[in-house]
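Appendix B. Worked example

We walk through a single record from start to finish. Start with the input: the chain for 3-phosphoshikimate 1-carboxyvinyltransferase, Flavobacterium turcicum, length 416.
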Amino acid sequence: MNLRLSTNSQFTIHNSQLDITGSKSETNRLLLLQALFPNITLANTSNSDDSEVMAKALKQVAAASGQPQVVDIHHAGTAMRFLTAYFAVTLGASVALTGSQRMTERPIQVLVEALEQLGAKITYEKNAGYPPIKIEGQKITASKVSIPANVSSQYISALLLVAPKLENGIEITLVGEITSVPYIKMTLALLNDLGITTRFEGNTITVAPQKESENKVMTVESDWSSASYFFSIVALADHATIVLNSYKQTSLQGDAALVSIYEQLGVRTEFNGNQMTLTKDVNFVPATQLSFDLNNTPDIAQTIVVTCLGLGIGCHLTGLHTLKIKETDRLEALRVELTKLGAAITVTNDSLTLEPSATLNKEVTIATYNDHRMAMAFAPLAIKVPLHIADAGVVSKSYPDFWKDMESIGFQVAHL
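Next comes the structure step. The output line below is what the pipeline stores for this chain.
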């Protein structure tokens, strides 16, 4: 599905209100915890492809009663990491875990080696260090493990999520600079909500074992990464007010940093209960060049750089080393697509620099690389120039209603 996006020449949004799907990050963590503690009930879960794939895989293996299973998680990187840990510690599970072509190019070795330190039995079916993998679930009694902390926080969260069901819990030693700390803290906070004892001091995390939890309803907060596109829209619009439902001022999600980041891009944010209101500051004058360290929030890098391009300002973004192993090499993809629009941009292995630019090329087709965030991050630029989004259906990975919501606030969305 290819789309053409455009807006009226003077783009204004008056008090539009949106319900955004629950956080994919929180949902996938809670789905795994629900598999470990079945008396948990979940509310406001994500309707994303990734969460549906995760839920289906857990049910498939649970119903198999130890019979060998092939589980295909398609493009869902979070599911690959979390399910690797879950199946590895599920006694009797026999699973071949695979995914899309891109998934077979995304490394899993760091997590596999950590699980092997604990006694897991995992083998590579094709290329060493990459999916597909064969997992034979074991009873795990070892509790101490070390893991590089500068590759992906999902490896660490995967271990933390299964830790309560390990006979002796877990003690993780983190080696190197810790990436995406808010996502680790999110995982620990969800464990704490279930009464599980955790500790995160220096480079060591411990989780105590726990056999059962109380009956509990866990409500998922709406997704901040998905909210980022509306921060961008408000920043680029002439006048705009958008109300987003089910957001907390004190959020577990690291991408809540959007509030302070977009304050520097002309967006005011106010909270009233569980509603978040974004308003364009029409008197705001942005700086010529901005710098942000996104080590804790790499998923909003694409949104920020596109916003800066649309505002005609430059930016220097650092802490982006994990973007090279996402759904695509996001740094290279940004370089290619932003250049099409007329941007002057350079990237390294962990940073991006955009030069200020006053012009944008029209009717450019943005390739999305099987990456939902490429489609959604570029979409707000249609406020400035008409553009085309290739393979626009990719948004279903995290935000299936995105194009419908864009139309509801005034974007003209034409199928090509």
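Two observations about the output. The chain has a mean pLDDT of 95. The CA atoms of residues 90 and 137 lie 5 Å apart.
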